[in-house]
Amino acid sequence: MEKTRLLILDSHGILFRAFFALGKQPNPMTSSQGELTYATYGYAESLLKVIEQIKPTHICAAWDAKGKTFRHELYPEYKATRKATPPELIPQMERVRELLEAFSIPIYELVGFEADDIAGTIAAKAAADDIETWIATLDSDLIQL
């Protein structure tokens, strides 16, 4: 019997990486209607690569909920210098959510928590159940897990 292997996607991290890496090109990728799609494409490409490498039996996506987190309550200056999400990324975020839904990949988000909190919680619970768990991320906080 094949061992259960869970892949948790740090969706915002993957999407932001694709956005900033591919957005530097002179002619960013667009749809036939002119909608920017380069970050969506980069996310999809990363998703397919990690699925091929890990060969998970289960996949889920951790997603940052809108608004402040419990860390803002504890420390009001938390991420105070972080720039707002670029407006050209927002529609691509919706496209990535649609992509995940099309692949039947559940999206987990919770108001007051970041995606890495969610990914860490899922990973801890899975490990307690002896499930081999992988987190696809570039976030140094999550890499420690």
TrEMBL record:
Sections of the chain in a coiled coil: none
SUPFAM superfamilies in the cross-refs: PIN domain-like
Pfam families cross-referenced by the UniProt entry: 5_3_exonuc_N
Domain 5'-3' exonuclease, chain residue ranges per copy: 4-144
Signal sequence, start to end: none
Keywords of the record: Hydrolase, Nuclease
InterPro entries cross-referenced by the UniProt entry: 5-3_exonucl_a-hlix_arch_N, 5-3_exonuclease, FEN, PIN-like_dom_sf
Name of the protein in its database record: 5'-3' exonuclease domain-containing protein
